[in-house]
Fold this sequence. Notes:
about 120 residues, two-stranded antiparallel ribbon
Amino acid sequence: MLPALAFLPTADIPDAFEDLLQVFPTEAASVADYFEEVYIGRRRRNGMSTAMFPPAVWSVRDSTLTDLPRTNNPVEAWHRGLQVNSSHHPRPPQLLLQHTLLTPSVRLSLYLLVSWGYFPFC
Length: 122
């Protein structure tokens, strides 16, 4: 139930969360309290308290509608590739070379150079 909130318009999330609380199991009240405190914000007499991670931070509705990535997994994968293929503390020239080698078009060019013996993009 809670993950579905991420696909709603940001302005609708607090009201939808209130609706979910009506059917939320009483055994999970501590989870609901935590989620409200950290991700929604509590209703106060003078408005809403600010959540640590407000809905504008974690809502993926706009990303989904515009077909953008909803996570940072591509960035994580790129960093992991850089980490695996370089030394622990690379010097700037090594880091620059490694960055260049991780670029997909450069990898394709190097593959063609090694496989076919020529560099077609020059």
